[in-house]
Amino acid sequence: MDFSEITQSIQNNKKEFTITILEATQALCVVIFVAGRGGSPVRHLPLLRVVAQHGCTVIAPHFEMLPSLTPTKEELNARIEQLETVLRDYSHSHQTLIGLGHSIGATLLLALAGGKALTFSGHGIGPHSIWKFERLALLAPSVDFFLHPGALQTVNTQIYLRNGRKDTVTPPSKALLLKQILEKQGHVDFLLDEEAGHFSYMDELPPQIEDSQSNREVFLVDLARNIAQFVTT
Length: 233
Known about the structure:
By secondary structure, this protein is of the alpha/beta class. 27% of the residues lie in helices and 26% in strands. The chain has five helices and ten strands, in the order βββαβαβαββββαβα. A hairpin with a 2-residue loop joins strand 1 (3-12) and strand 2. The protein is globular.
């Protein structure tokens, strides 16, 4: 299916930030993509283009890189505010709303869907509203934000969850725990990628990162195809 691709600026509380839009012709759904700590959706563009080719308009905000592996309440809430601006502007009641995120981006999607997240210092983060996602595709999410009682009991949506067995940033044991918690509320498709690390899900690796996934091209093609099938099912 045809789609157009543009990058433009929008405003949030008089502050401008950038979004990339991959707009599908006669879109079947709207996908909000949320990048990880680095904040750039450009590193995932091949994946997002495949999703757009399958008939979904993709909205991908650009964020400033988080300076620390343990982000603060203020840093995370700033991203959530940008995401809520995007959701208000680009989600429509007549179109299915889907979230797709990697690492801390996947974590923020869970918060937007109703999860009660706490920072490592115990401060609550979260949106002003609970957004009704039809489905969430979560790649190597940061789980520790939701390990307190009742954190995810209000999340009620279909989940596609993938994690790498060789992930040392968000270990597979945490992903399995997240699966066990989430499947109490609804259906969870979980896939543990045997050779994948934390950054294997990025089409363009960050500087100085070597991937444990030996055949990246085949892996990324299969990843994109499976995610596209999930969001359009």
